Amino acid sequence: MNRKELNPDSSPQAAFGARLRSSREARGWKQEELAAQMGYSSTHISAVETGRKVPTLRFSRSLDQALGTQGTIDTFERQWREIRQGSLLEGFPEYVGYEGRAAEIRLYEVGVIPGLLQTPDYAAALARGAVKRGAITDDQADERVRLIAERQAALLRTPPPLMFVVLDESCIRVPIGGPGVRDAQLAHLVEFAELSNTVLQLAPFEMGERRPFDLPVTLLTLTDRSLLSYGESAQRGHLERESTFVLPLLTAYHQLQAEAPSQAETVAIINQARRTPHD
Questions:
Q1: CATH value at residue 160
Q2: pTM score > 0.85 for this model?
Q3: Residue 275, Cβ density class (10 Å: 0-12 exposed, 13-18 middle, ≥19 buried)
Q4: In this predicted model, what pLDDT tens digit does every residue of 97-113 receive, in sequence order?
Q5: Alpha carbon 197 to chain centroid distance?
Q6: N or C: which end of the chain has fewer CB within 10 A?
């Protein structure tokens, strides 16, 4: 029998199918064995795996029960909701799966606080802004906020991942959600910096051409020490595994950290920003 190769980056539906196949094969199950446990035909399983059939809520919940992912942070039901809402960029659901298992996370962000550090009110304000622009629906906005909470919950595992975060100064200057939301968000950043597994730094405007990045950067180190990078365009996200592309980014990230103020200096700048009301 010819085996169809799957490209999980091609669409959220393809990512669902690829994950289904890999999870099934990791348990040594044939399609018939999984189908028997779920109450579906092996033909149905095959069609979902290869992207010829869209999974349903019932199918996703049955899959979670059969594979033991029910009640976890990364259920098939959640992935199905991402497909149904269509509010996430292609490539992002696959990235989230790696993020939830990474040993080290390195972030550089411009303009807005990254999702892993957002307060619920800050995340909701960004989502409402997207709704007002007509970019997403109310349901998709709710889904975005829920996903951020789920991603943050995944960081509470034992042991937690090491997190290195460098924020462009614009992240703390751009007013999002009004003074109360802004102050609570800045206070949350200070609390984040106090954790034992985190390092927070600010890249001030005056760094100018000394900053190595113009766009947001995400780097993951997995438990086997392999490296991944993730970036986004307006249309889709891209997960890069090739070390010849990822290692230069890691080198540039270390250069960014060396140029940026220390964590203590960063916290002082953030606290000063809190004392300076934004017009």
A1: 3.30.870.10
A2: no
A3: exposed
A4: 889 889 999 999 999 99
A5: 18
A6: N
